[in-house]
Design brief:
The protein contains 17 helices and no strands. By secondary structure, the chain is an all-alpha fold. The longest helix has 50 residues, at 39-88.
């Protein structure tokens, strides 16, 4: 088994996953203009990616011990290819809805196959290597955000922006082809036992928290263009900067996690993320960049550390536990997508009714939406504070 090649292929697959988020965020305005879609309709299209994801992670978690990582990862390639091509040739709302679901299913398949595979290949230090793997979610968003900005400035249409993702998709399939994959026997590979372990209070608590951490991170990033479009800062550059900081932070996560332990990292992250969203809701011009850096620090460890916590402290949940955690985060984010779009529409309409012009109304709506989003990490400050002291006492 060439675990370095498998790890690199998994990272490239995660880059594709991240690019779908970044480029979709960058072309929302074009899609709305081309097809006459409201923010609420765009929210439903966005939600398909977040709903396709949990379907795949739950199915992948249930079938991982039977299918193994190879078939799940190759399935991700097929659905990425199908979803991207269908998006390019989509003719409107329903076509975008269906194709985005396929892309979400592919993204979830990457998580369902790669997370337990990486944990198995690097079982000597799971949290550190899962953080290194998840470097490439923010890393891929940087790539996607910069590519989208450049191509938009060059007056390239949204179809071409979608098409460039076919290149890394074909690359990760090539790296996976013909490789030996890790055996699943070394994992907690009894699916029935895995399922029973999901009913423990600690796992259920973490799954609920995952819905809040994911919505804090991904809910904000997916609407970055609409939220910050009139703040005096460039939304896609903000996205690239935020995710760039996240990538660096995740790569060097090992010492931080070993010093503070996973529950301490999660607690500190919730505090910083709350402060950052409140600051961002009040900032304009250059101060938006400062608040965005703080936001990056707040959310950078959420997703991989949640997975690492479950893998280390709840190992009997196996691949199914990791799949359910990813599903919980993405399903909740999907539910909140049309709600966030509705917040933007409602706040903008209210501001226009009070005499604001189009640009001012969009700014007010974005700031009000950020205030609403700050509620999610604020709840986590309490939840992770309890978790921190509980884990200290248990240790």
């Amino acid at each position: 088994m060439n675990r370095s090649r498998l790890f690199n292929a998994s990272c490239i697959a995660l880059i594709v996953t991240a690019m779908t988020f970044a480029i979709r965020a960058g072309i929302l305005g074009q899609l709305g203009a081309d097809f006459g879609l409201s923010n609420t309709q765009l929210g439903y299209i966005n939600s398909m990616a977040f709903w396709g994801f949990p379907v795949a992670t739950v199915l992948g978690g249930l079938l991982y011990n039977t299918l193994g990582p190879k078939k799940i990862m190759m399935g991700a390639f097929v659905f990425h290819l199908l979803g991207l091509l269908l998006t390019i040739f989509s003719g409107g709302f329903w076509g975008l809805l269906i194709s985005t679901f396929f892309i979400g299913f592919a993204n979830g398949s990457v998580e369902a196959g790669a997370n337990p595979m990486v944990a198995e290949m690097y079982k000597e230090d799971k949290s550190t290597w899962l953080n290194k793997f998840h470097v490439w979610f923010p890393g891929g968003i940087v790539i996607g955000a910069l590519a989208s900005t450049l191509m938009t400035n060059m007056a390239m249409g949204w179809q071409i922006q979608i098409a460039i993702m076919l290149v890394p998709t074909l690359l990760y399939a090539y790296l996976l082809f013909g490789q030996e994959f890790p055996e699943t026997t070394a994992l907690e590979s009894d699916t029935g036992k895995n399922a029973k372990s999901l009913l423990t209070p600690l796992f259920l608590f973490m799954a609920i928290c995952m819905t809040l951490t994911a919505t804090t991170e991904l809910g904000t990033q997916q609407w970055i263009e609409k939220i910050l479009g009139n703040s005096g800062a460039h939304p896609m550059l903000i996205l690239a900067m935020v995710t760039g900081f996240m990538a660096v932070g995740r790569y060097f996560a090992g010492p931080v996690i070993h010093k503070l332990n996973p529950s301490g990292v999660l607690w500190g992250s919730a505090i910083i993320a709350t402060i950052a969203l409140v600051l961002m809701s009040q900032a304009t011009g250059p101060m938006v960049y400062v608040a965005a850096i703080l936001f990056a620090i707040g959310v950078m460890y959420f997703w991989p550390t949640m997975l690492g916590f479950v893998s280390e402290y709840l190992p009997n949940t196996g691949a199914l536990g990791l799949g359910i955690m990813g599903a919980a985060g993405m399903f909740a984010t999907g539910i909140w997508q049309p709600v966030i779009g509705g917040w933007l529409d409602a706040e903008k309409a209210k501001a226009i009714a009070q005499g604001a012009d189009e640009a001012q109304a969009s700014l007010v709506a974005g700031q009000a939406t950020l205030d609403n989003l700050a509620i999610f990490p604020a709840i986590l400050i309490l939840a992770f504070g309890v978790l921190y002291f509980y884990m200290r006492r248990r240790a």
